[in-house]
Amino acid sequence: MPATRRAPRPAAPDPAAFAVAEAGLAALAGLAPSDVLRRRLERAAPLAGAIDSPPDLASPGWAALLDAVTVQETRLFRAAPQLLALTALLPALPGGPLRLLSAGCASGEEAWSLAILAAAQGIEAEVLGLDLCRPALALAEAARYPAGPPDALREVPGAFLPWFTRDAGWVLPRADGLTRPVFRRTNLLDLPEETGRFGAILCRNVLIYLLPAARDAVLRGLVARLLPGGALLLGPTDMPGPGLPLRAEPGTHAIWRRL
Ligand SMILES: C[S@@+](CC[C@H](N)C(=O)[O-])C[C@H]1O[C@@H](n2cnc3c(N)ncnc32)[C@H](O)[C@@H]1O
What we know:
CATH superfamily of the largest domain: Vaccinia Virus protein VP39
Structural class: alpha/beta
CATH class of the largest domain: Alpha Beta
Distance between the termini: 72 Å
Number of helices: 8
Radius of gyration: 20 Å
Number of domains: 2
Bound molecules: S-adenosylmethionine
Shape: globular
Largest sheet: 7 strands, mixed
Strand content: 15-25%
């Protein structure tokens, strides 16, 4: 019987390099140790092993490791009921023009969904997407998503489907009538002053990957970027800690308003 060939296993990470990588990722981006991070670090063992500088976003080694270990799962109109609740709030949100932030935007589906929500109501809005992962940001700029299966438009409510076109296996937000979001590589732990302030900030499915202290720091930074009356949309299991100037938006899930 012919011997079956197994795919080569990735090199086992050197425990010392692994510990340095884990500590550096925590210091740099607030990433919490977890099984997911451990598996991703194991796959990225050659990258982790090659790091020879202190944690720094600008260092090629650390940037490549962050690209490799961060989780980019996202979808167009993900958690659509929450986005529809935001739609109802949009006309009364502060800012002129309205500014919307997708904090931890991954490959940009959330930012493009926000641009469509505003355009569909005839609201002029600037949308900014921030993330650390360079390949994800490149996909966000390209704004061409594999059509599936699973269908890339499966969570898009029918009223918003006309804002997309299909092209040979890809789904694209329509170019006409939409203001393109702007995407930047930025650490949410260290938001620069020039990021400005926003009428709404979405930080969904990001805080779950962070250490408690990093979660608090990111939330404090984001709340400071909200205009009074602005809306903060978090993931389903996120809860802003006490002491932040927020009140829960009645009748919605995981939406808070800045006092
Ligand atoms: C699972 S995706 C969430 C995408 C989108 N918000 C959604 O809900 O569909 C999490 C993203 O957060 C980003 N991220 C994690 N820590 C970050 C940090 N400290 N600064 C900026 N982005 C971060 C990751 O690179 C990843 O793209």
